[in-house]
Amino acid sequence: MTANLRSESLGVGDSAAAGPHVGVLALQGDFREHAHVLTRLGAHVSLVRRPEELDAVDGLVIPGGESSVMDKLSRTFGLAEPLQAAIADGLPVYGTCAGLIMLADTVLDAIAGQQSLGGLDVVVRRNAFGSQNQSFETDLDIPALGEEPMHAVFIRGPVVESVGAAATPLAALADGRVVAVEQGNLLGTSFHPEITGEYRFHEYFLGKVRARTASAVE
Amino acid sequence: MTESSMPAPAATSLTGSSRVKRGLAEMLKGGVIMDVVTPEQARIAEDAGAVAVMALERVPADIRAQGGVARMSDPDLIEAIIAEVSIPVMAKARIGHFVEAQVLQALDVDYIDESEVLSPADYVNHIDKWAFNTPFVCGATNLGEALRRINEGAAMIRSKGEAGTGDVSEATKHIRKITSEINQLKSMTRDELYVAAKDLQAPYDLVLEIAETGKLPVVLFTAGGVATPADAAMMMQLGADGVFVGSGIFKSGNPEARAAAVVKATTFYDDPSVIADVSRGLGEAMVGINVGDLAAPHRLAERGW
């Protein structure tokens, strides 16, 4: 019963005919915050925990949370391989924090045996800033998303230590460390726009989703 | 290629804000936080899929069995556990013991639990949690208690349950109590909310916020007596954002398997077939104590005011 109430509060199913259908990986983490933002932006949102739930979506968000837990659960419940196939097939995917780690080709300071889905040609370091005492909020310049600086919250966040030839950095801290990257239909940020009321990254991501569904229709 | 080894973020950055403190709890949602008393147990917890560990010297079941004054853990133990795992590490300070909390902050733990499981250090005041950079989680048995803790700066709430018993009935009672009191506020008019704030012994502004949003402004986990995958799933179905498992894992017959099973049941809390699958062959659950058999002075949930 409670589970149904929660689905309603996400607005899941409210706008089935309207916007693009976007999934949010809901194995662990702040997936409801992403679902809320995407719903506000007019997307039809559903939560993805099983391989068959992935089939229906035109785009996917991998939320913040604990990357080692998402990795384990995605492999245990048979999601990792279909996800990798979907990414290879061009599915638009946006990852925040743990989601960025999941999308990185190489992860440093991972736990023993931890894997990532890959797709982004980057090296990401987990917990790059240290403990929670070093978590912080700051303003970032993100030229690709307009002139106005973006307020960004980093929570035991990762950084992109090196950006490969296929990927493009979108934002960096004052010291030069890269914290947002893009590669084709993939997007990753070290920080959490979903908890600051910042919609620009999600809008940018939905643009990719719409462009891909439009080209599929043609 | 972009590389840098500078440790400090931008000069204009802000640490220890409410958003940063509450934000870590947001990232733990849908996850399981496990009590561990050694680095080896911390490793087992991380490998099983814990989102965080609670570092302590004795699990509540042993505190209960051994009696005496229970205090903050040895800094060596906490540091050894921090060194062992990369997931967040929490540690407990006694209620009102702000110096234990200062020590835990200096040890760089990720969350401080001002916990009724330890012996209280102050029977009147809780810690002023706004004074800290490190976020706090606090226990609550009802909405008023939760709001008083949030007013003092808690960035996360856990319903208390009755720790160290393996009896989930108090956890059920407390999460039901908190959610039903929230639901009552939602249906009240403005004038009724003034009285509700008085009855809850909570600040009016927070009471009004709950009435308008229909939820706590911080993440709400459940704790105290969770011992099986089905217990964890039940707490999630009752509206918890996640689960603390204390004695339930490492006081059971097969901690590795039970820990992993509780993690899976927490994610698939609304899917009985998954809960059935993960519940098979876990060996013995912790030997429990029925809360009804505990004399009132031994009930930890009654600590905190």
UniProtKB/TrEMBL annotation, chain A:
Active-site residues per Swiss-Prot or TrEMBL entry: 97 (nucleophile), 192 (charge relay system), 194 (charge relay system)
Pfam families, per the entry: SNO
GO molecular function: glutaminase activity; pyridoxal 5'-phosphate synthase (glutamine hydrolysing) activity
Binding site for L-glutamine: 65-67, 126, 155-156
GO cellular component terms listed in the entry, alphabetical order: cytosol; glutaminase complex
Catalytic activity: L-glutamine + H2O = L-glutamate + NH4(+); aldehydo-D-ribose 5-phosphate + D-glyceraldehyde 3-phosphate + L-glutamine = pyridoxal 5'-phosphate + L-glutamate + phosphate + 3 H2O + H(+)
Keywords: Glutamine amidotransferase, Hydrolase, Lyase, Pyridoxal phosphate
InterPro entries given in the database record: Class_I_gatase-like, PdxT/SNO, PdxT/SNO_CS
Pathway: Cofactor biosynthesis; pyridoxal 5'-phosphate biosynthesis
Enzyme nomenclature, EC number: 4.3.3.6, 3.5.1.2
Top-level taxon: Bacteria
PROSITE patterns in UniProt: GATASE_COBBQ, GATASE_TYPE_1, PDXT_SNO_1, PDXT_SNO_2
Family, similarity comment: Belongs to the glutaminase PdxT/SNO family.
Subunit text: In the presence of PdxS, forms a dodecamer of heterodimers. Only shows activity in the heterodimer.
Stated name of the protein: Pyridoxal 5'-phosphate synthase subunit PdxT
Native source species: Agromyces ramosus
Name of encoding gene: pdxT
From TrEMBL, chain B:
Assembly description: Homohexamer and homododecamer. In the presence of PdxT, forms a dodecamer of heterodimers.
Binding positions for D-ribose 5-phosphate per the UniProt entry: 35, 164, 225, 246-247
Keywords on record: Lyase, Pyridoxal phosphate, Schiff base
Active-site residues, record numbering mapped to chain: 92 (schiff-base intermediate with d-ribose 5-phosphate)
Homology family: Belongs to the PdxS/SNZ family.
GO-annotated molecular function: pyridoxal 5'-phosphate synthase (glutamine hydrolysing) activity
Annotated GO biological process: amino acid metabolic process; pyridoxal phosphate biosynthetic process; pyridoxine biosynthetic process
Organism: Agromyces ramosus
Record has Protease as a keyword: no
NCBIfam families reported in the protein's UniProt record: PRK04180.1, pyridoxal 5'-phosphate synthase lyase subunit PdxS
Pathway: Cofactor biosynthesis; pyridoxal 5'-phosphate biosynthesis
Underlying gene: pdxS
Binding site for D-glyceraldehyde 3-phosphate: 176
Domain PdxS/SNZ N-terminal positions: 18-223
Reaction(s) this enzyme catalyzes, per UniProt: aldehydo-D-ribose 5-phosphate + D-glyceraldehyde 3-phosphate + L-glutamine = pyridoxal 5'-phosphate + L-glutamate + phosphate + 3 H2O + H(+)
UniProt-listed Enzyme Commission number(s): 4.3.3.6
The protein's name: Pyridoxal 5'-phosphate synthase subunit PdxS
